[in-house]
Each structure stands twice: as structure tokens, then as C-alpha cells.
Amino acid sequence: MLVAPSLLSADFANLQKEVEAVDNAGADWIHFDVMDGHFVPNITFGPMVVKSLRKYSDKVFDVHLMIENPEKFVEEFANAGADFITVHQEATVHIHRLITLIKSLGCKAGVSINPGTPVNVLEEILPYIDMVLIMSVNPGFGGQKFIETSVDKIKKLRGLADKAKPELLIQVDGGVSDKNINMLEEAGCNVAVAGSYIFGSDDYKKAIDSLK
Ligand code: DX5
Ligand code: ZN
């Protein structure tokens, strides 16, 4: 299981220190939650923050865009040093065009779906993408309760991916902890995003290790 700490629950007054701390504690990826106050009811940060932190870690920078009009901003995030750019299926009517744009910028492309969106909307796009992000909470805030039915969605998606794209990465985001990580892995998930579970603990290494 790859572990991607979500900076949403980090100390925003010390982001450099927090990135270095999770990097040293064994994080595989660093997860950036970008929110615009429209697609989700919260506002976080933009590409400048990603760019400023790029020099402090060589880990995979995993940018999760929870914004309207993502097509307007993907180039800036690519230039800021994003390795993966994940966009929401619900935020665009032209997902194939947007994925093509992300790939043309040299990034890996992910598509995310909210808890109320069925996995089968992804069927036609799977061959073109590197990752699907299953939201296991309604996006916008850290520290929410894991939605149990997400496990079945991951199983269903793994079944679709086995036919269309066996190497597809399946990422889960929201309410992930040592309590649900085993069932998520059994369901077919390979990348776990965790915010409050890691940054809320007093030993980042122990928390990250417990998810691996
Ligand atoms: C939610 C974000 C998540 C969030 C997860 O909108 O996409 O990445 O930070 O936080 P936890 O792990 O606390 O649920
Ligand atoms: Zn996220």
C-alpha cells in the first residue's frame, strides 16, 4: 500500500516542516487538496504553494483538484511540479479532453468520483488514465467519518479495471485509518490518502507504517 499524507490536516503555518517530516517518516506520496470554495465548501491553496514546496521533497506530488473549471488550471499545477493531477468526473463535461491535456503536460492523470457517483461512469475512460480516486467522504474537509459503502465501490472498480486496465492505481481518500486499511487493501486499493490520522498523531512514522 502506498501512503499519501494529505497536507489538509498539516500545520499550514509550517508547511515546509510538515512536508519534510512526512517525507522523513516514510510517506510515498504527498497529497495536495486544492479547493476553490465552489466545487466544495472550503478554500485551500493554489499552484504557488505546490511550487514553493517542490524543492523540499522528491516524493511524488499528488494534486487533487476539487475545483470548478479544472481545465483552466491544470497547466499551472503541472508547471508547479505536480506528478499526478487528479480531477473530478463531476467537475467537467469533457473528461477525455481534460485527461488528454493533463497527459500532454507530462503528468500522470487521475479521475476522482464523489460518494454519490457510481463507478460505471468511469468505464470508458479507464484505458486513458493512471489512477481513480474513490472519495470515501464528501470532499471539502478533513476528519470526516469513512463511508462504509466505499469498500464495495472499490471492489466493483477493481473488477472493471481487471478487464480494461489491470495496472490502474486505485486511491482512496477520506476517513482512512488503521481501522479500515486492511479491508481497503483486500478490496483492491493501492494508494491510501490520510490526513487527520497521520497529522493528528504524535508519531508520523508509526501512523504511516500502520497503513503500509
Ligand atoms: C477531503 C480531502 C481529503 C482529506 C482527507 O476533501 O480530499 O484528502 O484531507 O482527510 P482525512 O484523512 O482526515 O479524512
Ligand atoms: Zn484529497
From TrEMBL:
Keyword field contains Protease: no
Pathway: Carbohydrate degradation
CDD domains from the UniProt entry: RPE
The reaction(s) this protein catalyses: D-ribulose 5-phosphate = D-xylulose 5-phosphate
Record carries keyword 4Fe-4S: no
A Gene Ontology BP annotation from the UniProt entry: pentose-phosphate shunt
Function field: Catalyzes the reversible epimerization of D-ribulose 5-phosphate to D-xylulose 5-phosphate.
Name of the protein described by the UniProt record: Ribulose-phosphate 3-epimerase
Cofactor: Fe(2+); Co(2+); Zn(2+); Mn(2+)
Entry's cofactor comment: Binds 1 divalent metal cation per subunit.
EC number(s) on file: 5.1.3.1
UniProt KW keywords: Carbohydrate metabolism, Cobalt, Isomerase, Manganese, Metal-binding, Zinc
Active-site residues from the entry: D33 (proton acceptor), D173 (proton donor)
Binding site for substrate: S6, H64, G140, F141, G142, G143, D173, G174, G175, G195, S196
Family under the similarity heading: Belongs to the ribulose-phosphate 3-epimerase family.
Molecular function via GO: D-ribulose-phosphate 3-epimerase activity; metal ion binding
